[in-house]
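Before any further analysis, we paired sequence with structure tokens, yielding the entry below:
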Amino acid sequence: MSNPDFKLSDGVPAPLGATLTAHGCNFAVHAPNASAVELCLFHADTEEELITLRLPAKTGKVWHGCVQGIKEGQLYGYRAHGKDMLELGLLFNSQKLLIDPYAKRINRPAVWNARQYKGDSQFMIPKAVICNTPPPIEPGSKPHLGFDEFILYEAHIKGMTQLHPQVPTEKRGKFLGFCQPVILEHLKQLGVTAVQLMPVTAFMSEPWLTERGYSNYWGYNPINFFSPDPRYAIDDPVGEFRAMVNALHGAGIEVILDVVFNHTAEGGVDGPMLSFKGLDNTAFYLFDHNEYGAMNYRHYLNNSGCGNSVNVAHPYVMKMVMDALRYWVEIMGVDGFRFDLAASLGRDPYEFSAHAGFFRALRQDPVLERVKLIAEPWDIGAGGYRLGHFPSHWHECNDKYRDTLRAFWRGDKGSTSDFATRLLGSRDIFPKGQRAIHTSVNMVTYHDGFTLEDLVSYQERHNEANGEQNRDGHGHNISANYGVEGATHNPQILALRDRQKRNMFATLLLSQGIPHVLGGDELCRTQKGNNNAYCQDNEISWLDWELTQRKQDFFDFCQKVIAIRKGSELLSNLSLQDDNYINKVNVEKVGWYRPDGAGKVVDDWQDANNQAFALQFKGEGEITEHWLILFNAGDNDVAFVLPSEPKDWQLELDTRYSSDDDYPVRQITGLYVQAYKSLSLLRCHTATP
């Protein structure tokens, strides 16, 4: 097919992707082993093919060409020609249309369709859209928060807005819905300072999931690392994402993007060819070795559990990932990243190292060295659990914090000493002098697990809706139902459940580290016991914004605890004399006490029945804060003898009470009876935090 409107010349090999110039559009794609690469242009409305042009030039490993007559909005894709020899890792198939790995936008969501994929796949594969790169977002418009200011709120674009009655119908489930004034106001009222958005880059649900009538609601199955997924846009994914980021920044809220560079939707050897496989399969993925040590291209390494593992250690792949990260920071405006299964990124290429090439590349990059980096510090491959092993400027999701906090408040004997360690930043994992006190990203709940409401309502997982006979999801949840499995109207059970929620949420905000709040926990959101709702694009996953008095009381409590943390330097940014990571000190004394007022000794921590203790912070110099926290995870009330100096304490918080109106007294002297399964926060009334 020919078209006189399109004139082809050699173009240039950089930058990769489609770049509009004064002379047309330059196309450059990495495909070193291809014998030829075809550029296919499509009609914007029907997606019928307009013309196929062979890229005329190859420089090194990059095929390229410049086409005159192309304008913004043109749809395109690639077909790569070459050998189809699986034993050599070569999978060239010109019948498979390929998405440009550097596409900044695709025209529609990717949805698996076996009939359309068979043979020529062009009608199944979404098309890349040629677009001008917007100007960078001004760095001065970003909040630039310190980690001591971080209150991290994990949210899903659709789940946050789909059921909100005050979000316009056409904007529900969209970027423009997430930045509606009512959503921003909710986040500000709660006290959130950063949102961690679940994946928004273009993805495709797994074929087996689609064929069973489900979808990958969470989006952890990418097909492209640059393009925002069209599912979350009304018309312009790039512009609408940028508008959302600008609105969040205007509200003083930073944006952390959950990114997936450990695997793709192309799966293993039987998976579809969508982009990367068809261009350079051997470079993009990791493979097992056979018994003779040679590469076995019939078996993709599966450190992700999703069928393949991206080889980030390969120079081309590392460059692409770095380019994507810079794009999301400079052009799309995000403030940092949470890396899914981040241990995979530190494999160089098979064994993890804190000095891996990817970490070194990030450290020297003038754009990325300044952004927030949060690791999910594990994958499922050999030696994949790497909590505490990341470079010193990284922050790490701390599952030991989660498990210890749950166990302590459930009443598990022997967890008190570990609980105390978690309170002060998990310095057994992140040593003083080497890692910042904020290194630990503390969480009680995460998207992959129970919500806070379900954590106190279900003893076992209930994932029947996922269609896998309740075999999926974690079986070890360290949860409790307090008498009835699931929903109940029993007032005693509900009261205890709410108290336990207050205990865990308060502990989260009073611990050193970055508090991670699962979006919807403040609204008492339930997934009806489903602890793996990855395929539930429905009311199981969406936030319910209708508040009963019980839910309002809990929201008010969450709001109050966050405000206390934000108003205190000691509770949010403890600097100890024996920690030279930061050259400052703001606390005169950290004291651990038994209920009788005596200082705790080693034997106290080793006593499995010891479930009550006090923790005291006293500021130094100009820091006049003086705090006392009383913990009682036991089944009986405990009388605490308060420190003799000062004599009077102000009761700021007691989790036995569901509402501020329930507090009988505020001024405490000498002795305080701490109710079973509760905590209290007291402040010296003469100090001003």
